[in-house]
């Protein structure tokens, strides 16, 4: 989901990369002289904790990915896509139904519910939940994050692992994802052109090679989709509006579709597009290589667990002949 573009009930703003001597990503200082733990989020805000964070409230799906990877459970979660990803079998399954609810909308979570949950930390989306910082003053700090490339997701996991006192769990999960991706790169013939597209109607957008999913798929497939006109992606998020005419010019071998529904009865994006003649001309459509993927994971998760699932599902669909 991109700024000014509705995607899965979420609006994603550009990642404000925090620069450090080691490069891009979240800056973490573990056990400075005071014995506290500090983390700098994607807005440049420094959050400091006197002891490891234990009680995390999630108002964004990425938070669910982080807690699951760290072997934690959120004390409260937002509704909609946040609870949907929590209930996925690779995350918390049926237990995801039982987590305390944070009411309100994705854009305006209910602060009273957060107060009642008594969190040590709230994790939200940079560019969407920034205004909550003032409302949560005196209640709990809010960590505002938004990784763009998969390496940023890895660094975020390690950073949150540090402030929760779970650096080993974070490293184990990070290593597992990177090993999975490396194995997929080794096995992949990388001879098939793939695309991730998303939308709720025929006015769709695509994820480019600089978008989060694109940074993963370009490692295991031909992924030629780029931001050639910066004005189409003013916030540098790696997603641009697209047309069937341009799609046909590249003619991908496989298409992964993230469908979002904002009204009951809304058809999947690929089903809506199937009514259009140009869509039916695409090679992927003619050869049955269009996959409607789980949008809460492929589109909204953005953590290493979600990206690992993306790798597994993409490899199986792109290269079914591989062992």
Fourth-level CATH superfamily of the largest domain: Nitrogenase molybdenum iron protein domain
Report the mean per-residue pLDDT as an integer. Answer: 90
Specify the biggest β-sheet.
5 strands, parallel
Q: What's the structural domain tally?
A: 2
Distance between the termini: 34 Å
User: The CATH topology of the largest domain is what?
Assistant: Rossmann fold
CATH architecture of the largest domain: 3-Layer(aba) Sandwich
Report the β-strand fraction as a percent range.
15-25%
Q: What is the chain-wise order of helices and strands?
A: EEEEEEHEHEHEHEHHEEHEHEHHHEHH
Helix content: 25-40%
Residue stretches low in confidence (pLDDT < 50, at least 5 long) are 1-25, 29-33
Helix/strand/pairing class, anyone? Answer: alpha/beta
- Tally of helical runs: 13
Task: Count the beta strands.
Answer: 15
What would you note in describing this structure?
With 323 residues, this protein is of the alpha/beta class. It folds into two domains: 19-181, Rossmann fold (3-Layer(aba) Sandwich), CATH 3.40.50.1980; 188-318, 3-Layer(aba) Sandwich (Rossmann fold). It contains 13 helices and 15 strands. It has helices spanning 61-69, 81-86, 111-117, 132-135, 150-163, 167-187, 212-217, 244-250, 269-273, 277-281, 283-286, 295-298, 304-318, and strands at residues 19-20, 23-24, 27-30, 37-40, 46-49, 56-58, 76-78, 100-102, 121-125, 142-145, 194-199, 205-207, 239-241, 254-259, 290-292. The strands form four sheets. The protein has a five-stranded parallel β-sheet, with helices on both faces. Strands 13-12-11-14-15 form a five-stranded mixed β-sheet. Helix 4 links the parallel strand 9 and strand 10. The model is unreliable at 1-25 and 29-33 (pLDDT under 50).
């Amino acid at each position: 989901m991109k700024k000014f573009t509705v995607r899965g009930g979420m609006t994603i703003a550009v990642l404000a990369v925090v620069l450090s001597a080691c490069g891009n990503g979240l800056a973490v200082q573990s056990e400075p002289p005071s014995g506290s733990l500090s983390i700098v989020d994607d807005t440049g805000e420094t959050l400091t904790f006197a002891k490891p964070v234990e009680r995390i409230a999630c108002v964004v799906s990425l938070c669910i990915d982080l807690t699951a990877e760290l072997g934690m459970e959120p004390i409260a979660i937002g509704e909609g896509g946040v609870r949907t990803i929590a209930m996925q079998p690779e995350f918390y399954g049926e237990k995801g139904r039982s987590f305390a609810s944070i009411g309100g909308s994705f854009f305006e979570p209910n602060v009273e519910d957060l107060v009642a949950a008594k969190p040590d930390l709230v994790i939200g989306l940079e560019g969407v939940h920034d205004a909550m910082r003032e409302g949560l003053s005196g209640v709990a700090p809010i960590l505002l994050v938004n990784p763009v490339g998969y390496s940023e997701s890895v660094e975020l996991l390690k950073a949150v692992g540090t402030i929760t006192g779970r650096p080993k769990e974070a490293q184990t999960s990070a290593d597992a994802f990177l090993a999975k991706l490396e194995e997929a790169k080794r096995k992949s013939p990388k001879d098939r052109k793939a695309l991730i597209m998303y939308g709720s109607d025929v006015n769709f957008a695509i994820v480019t090679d600089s978008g989060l999913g694109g940074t993963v798929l370009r490692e295991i497939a031909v992924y030629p989709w780029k931001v050639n006109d910066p004005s189409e992606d003013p916030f540098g998020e790696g997603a641009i509006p697209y047309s069937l005419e341009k799609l046909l010019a590249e003619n991908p071998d496989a298409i992964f579709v993230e469908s979002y529904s904002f009204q009951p009865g809304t058809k999947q994006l690929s089903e809506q597009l199937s009514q259009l003649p140009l869509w039916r001309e695409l090679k992927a459509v003619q050869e049955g290589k269009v996959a409607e993927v789980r949008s809460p994971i492929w589109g909204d998760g953005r953590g290493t667990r979600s990206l690992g699932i993306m790798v597994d599902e993409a490899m199986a669909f792109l290269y079914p002949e591989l062992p």
